[in-house]
Automatic annotation (TrEMBL):
It comes from Eragrostis curvula (weeping love grass). Signal peptide: none annotated. This is Protein artemis. It is found in: Nucleus. InterPro entries: DRMBL, RibonucZ/Hydroxyglut_hydro. Residues 367-383 have a biased composition (Basic and acidic residues). Residues 367-416 are annotated as: Disordered. Belongs to the DNA repair metallo-beta-lactamase (DRMBL) family. Residues 224-350 form the DNA repair metallo-beta-lactamase domain.
DNA sequence: GCGATCAGCT
DNA sequence: CACAGCTGATCGC
């Protein structure tokens, strides 16, 4: 593929069309650049369109092209080198990562490429089976020349149950602590289904910070406003920003009232026991790990390495972590590879703690398995910067990822008052983004 | 003084 | 460790 044609999750310019897979900050770098968006047409899901102004208030929506899951669009591009016209058809496939997340399948004069973005692929769930069918329908007889794969958890040891199973485990934990306050660490987008499940199962509202409530309403997940609230006295279960979820904060909250924390995450090292962490940091050992019993969930229905019958690992006192992941685990990646059978595969996650070239595990599922690394495009030239992720060899420690360059200017909320002065910049950001650590503590201590 | 970007951290 | 994100420092306007 020639250079300068299309970019996915990269918005620094130089392309003729731009594609956003989902609205997490590390995928939107460059979108908030000064002067608004004017590099070219910007394709994303209708859900993402709806949320876009909350993340990028100044964005010029005339350049935004909503692409519904399953829908296609034709792109008329021109070769930057020869000026000849190029025809490319793009199809959006649900990625099931967070609300509005999409994969993009490109086919046309440049061959066939599939960019998954971040995705989950739980084929025990209807949504994933429908997504798989949508992908197969879109592919038809075509073969994917290059698959850009979410390799976040691309290691055979990283298997976890489908999200509904883990959601039920979380309900069990909360039920086992009837007199505790509960905080759950979440990001600005994602894990809505988990919170909905908890709310329905326990018949309990869930506190979220004001900006998160706005997101819920824009997503339409709580149309009757029965589930989520910003009023602290209505519930003992709170979803807090992931960065408020620290041992220090949990201990502080416990001085006010008994509180447990639950971190839903697929990150494997969070499953380690607290002793490991204490020793590794030279701190005195923590108290012994408390164990929690879970109801068995139909024994072998999960068929993964993670054993749902064993208690979830506790990484610190009063804090639990459960493998609720919005990224595909290894067995799902394997199934995806078997379904797509690409000629070659390239990982898109370069900052992973254990970046693994997916070819290492899936070479045998690639059409070009007998060849070493080669240019992934057909005979049309080298691959584009834009569609080539930051690649690095196996077993190399990743460098620190450059930070996001987005400038989220959220609408203001009144809850942001805090007596803790840090800096004007911090205060400004605080105003913009809604509740933070201190707000959460204040709010809970008042309750 | 302000926003954008970078460095550092979890 | 960093899924995605927050904070403070610095730079240019």
């Amino acid at each position: 593929m020639d250079e300068g044609l299309v970019s996915v999750d990269k918005f620094s310019g130089g392309s003729q069309a731009y594609f956003l897979t989902h609205l997490h900050q590390d995928h939107t770098r460059g979108l908030g650049a000064a002067g608004g968006w004017r590099h070219g047409p910007l394709y994303c899901s209708p859900t993402t369109v709806r949320l876009l102004p909350t993340r990028f208030p100044g964005i010029d929506t005339s350049l935004v092209r909503p692409l519904a899951p399953g829908a296609s669009a034709s792109l008329s591009l021109s070769s930057p080198t020869s000026d000849r016209p190029l025809s490319v058809r793009v199809t959006a496939i649900p990625a099931l990562h967070c609300p509005g997340s999409l994969m993009y399948l490109f086919r046309g004069d440049l061959g066939c490429m599939l960019y998954t973005g971040d995705f989950r692929w739980e084929l025990g769930c209807d949504k994933a089976r429908r997504a798989k069918q949508a992908l197969l329908d879109a592919l038809g007889e075509d073969t994917v020349d290059v698959l850009y794969l979410d390799n976040t958890y691309c290691h055979p040891s990283l298997n976890f149950p489908p999200r509904p199973v883990v959601a039920e485990q979380m309900v069990d934990i909360i039920r086992a602590h009837p007199d505790h306050e509960v905080i759950i660490g979440v990001d600005t987008l994602g894990k809505e289904d988990l919170l909905l499940h908890i709310s329905r199962a326990l018949q309990m509202k869930i506190w979220v910070w004001p900006q998160r409530l706005q997101t819920m309403h824009l997503l339409g997940v709580d149309e009757n406003q029965e589930i989520f609230t910003t009023q602290t006295n209505l519930t003992r279960v709170r979803a807090v920003p992931r960065y408020s979820f620290t041992i220090e904060n949990l201990e502080a909250l416990n001085t006010v009232c008994p509180t447990i924390g639950i971190m839903p995450s697929g990150i494997p090292w969070l499953w380690k026991s607290c002793e490991d962490r204490a020793e590794s940091k030279g701190r005195p050992p923590r108290p012994p790990v408390k164990s929690i019993r879970f109801k068995g969930r139909n024994g072998g229905t999960i068929g993964m390495d993670y054993d749902p019958l064993s208690p979830p690992k506790l990484f610190e006192k009063d804090a639990y972590t459960l493998p609720y992941s919005e990224h595909a685990c290894f067995s799902e990646l394997k199934d995806f590879m078997q379904t797509v059978k690409p000629s070659t595969v390239i990982g898109i996650v370069s900052s992973s703690f254990c970046y693994v070239n997916p070819r290492h595990h899936f070479r045998h599922l690639c059409g070009d398995n007998d060849q070493a690394e080669r240019s992934p495009a057909k005979s049309k030239g080298g691959d584009t910067d834009s569609l080539t992720p930051k690649r690095r060899p196996d077993n190399l420690t990743p460098k620190r990822r450059p930070n996001g360059s987005t400038s989220p200017k959220e609408r203001k909320f009144s809850i942001s008052s805090s007596s803790l002065y840090r800096s004007k910049v911090a205060m400004k950001r605080k105003e913009c983004c809604g509740a933070r650590i201190v707000d959460t503590e204040e709010v809970i201590s008042v309750a």
